[in-house]
Amino acid sequence: MGIVGGGKAGRNLALAFKAAGRAEVAVFCTRHEDSAREAARWCDVPHWTTDLEAMLADDSIDALVIATPDEYHCEQTVMAARAGKHVLCEKPMCRSLEEAERMIEEAERHQVILMIGFTERYSHPCHEAKRRIDEGEIGTPRMILARRCHPRSIVRGRSWLNDLETGGVLNYAGTHNIDLICWFMGARPERVYAEMGQLILTGQNFTDGAVMTFRFSNGGIAALYETFAYPGRYPHGVDRNIEILGDRGVIKIDFMSQPLMMYTEEGAQVVDSITWPAAGGKIGGALQAEVEHFIRCIESGERPLTSGAEGKLALQIALAAREAAQSGKAVTIGKV
Ligand SMILES: NC(=O)c1ccc[n+]([C@@H]2O[C@H](COP(=O)([O-])OP(=O)(O)OC[C@H]3O[C@@H](n4cnc5c(N)ncnc54)[C@H](OP(=O)(O)O)[C@@H]3O)[C@@H](O)[C@H]2O)c1
């Protein structure tokens, strides 16, 4: 494995591959020697480079993780596919439908796996919720409510997190919940409406708050609430939950009820046990399940649960929501 991008996502994924154990992370690649060297040191990975082309020419590397800022996802995925490497690309898949189509086409042409890092799909509560929905335990899903609230500290230091380079909150983080809502509803999204704005954070040209609604082909409806403007020292990390109401019951996923909490003079801290819990230089939870799924797809040739098609659909809906907010009119989602 090679990992492109040595920030939070790249490092977490490297440690999750270590926990999974069936793949060896051999090298980190970034644009600057300092960041590549530091990521390799931090994750105890043997090599680092700033030369992506040399990494792609290395026959001992079978697959790449693309964990760079969103604007590079398309170009780097296409380069990797052309070099015959399987790709686990971070969400959001890219910035436009044209880019998404190129990524899918190149992966298909070169017969490599393209998986998108919708980590929540691989968490135990989401996995179990979907299994129960599919087995009819709550009947047909009719309504879904999802919210996801990031502390504003995530935005600081990431100057690329702006509307121009990544789209607003719905593209960047909302695609997690957009993907989950479509998955749980199990029907085709037909229409969306949204309101959004640069509501609280200033000086970064970043749409930090959005609400949106969905209508699905089965008559189901859903609503989403997303923000990047929670207080910077909010103790719960990313505060999020989802409710799915079927005609025979309701499922509630509360990612925030964690078994380990800590209170000191500096404040409260809730320790993640679901998404990417860290212990002993490895990362478990949903992220470990995600990379294990990627490895299994490479070994068996099976289609990833979160393939390029899912990445493209989530992006298409986020872009339609932005159009709806700009025009003040609901937007119909065309065939995907
Ligand atoms: N699945 C999830 O839940 C999740 C969570 C967090 C982030 N993400 C995604 O992961 C991606 C990265 O986010 P992050 O938070 O890790 O960002 P970050 O902390 O800002 O790190 C970005 C890394 O990419 C490197 N980089 C930037 N441009 C590059 C290029 N052209 N080629 C090679 N390396 C490059 C940077 O180093 P240099 O500047 O030295 O090149 C840095 O090491 C984003 O797409 C984000 O949406 C996903």
Summarize the SSE layout with pairings.
Blueprint: E1 2-4, H1 8-20, E2 27-29, H2 33-43, E3 47-49, H3 52-56, E4 63-66, H4 73-82, E5 86-90, H5 97-109, E6 114-117, H6 124-134, E7 141-151, H7 163-166, H8 169-185, E8 189-197, E9 209-216, E10 221-230, E11 239-246, E12 250-254, E13 260-264, E14 267-271, E15 278-279, E16 282-283, H9 285-300, H10 308-327, E17 331-332
Parallel strand pairs: 1-2, 1-4, 2-3, 4-5, 5-6, 7-10
Antiparallel strand pairs: 7-11, 8-9, 8-17, 9-10, 11-12, 13-14, 15-16
Helix pairs in contact: 1-2, 1-9, 4-5, 5-10, 8-10
The chain binds NADP nicotinamide-adenine-dinucleotide phosphate.
Residues 4-10, 29-32, 35, 67-70, 72, 90-91, 117, 119, 158, 172 line the site of NADP nicotinamide-adenine-dinucleotide phosphate (NAP).
Describe the structure.
The chain is an alpha/beta fold and 336 residues long. The protein has two domains: 2-119, NAD(P)-binding Rossmann-like Domain (Rossmann fold, 3-Layer(aba) Sandwich), CATH 3.40.50; 120-275 and 308-332, Dihydrodipicolinate Reductase, domain 2 (2-Layer Sandwich), CATH 3.30.360. Helix content is 36%, strand content 26%. The protein is built from ten helices and 17 strands. The strands form four sheets. A seven-stranded mixed sheet has the order 12-11-7-10-9-8-17. A six-stranded parallel sheet has the order 3-2-1-4-5-6, with helices on both faces. A hairpin with a 2-residue loop joins β15 (278-279) and β16. α5 packs antiparallel against α10. The model has no long low-confidence stretch (mean pLDDT 96). The site of NADP nicotinamide-adenine-dinucleotide phosphate has 23 residues, from α1. NADP nicotinamide-adenine-dinucleotide phosphate (NAP) is lined by residues 4-10, 29-32, 35, 67-70, 72, 90-91, 117, 119, 158, 172.
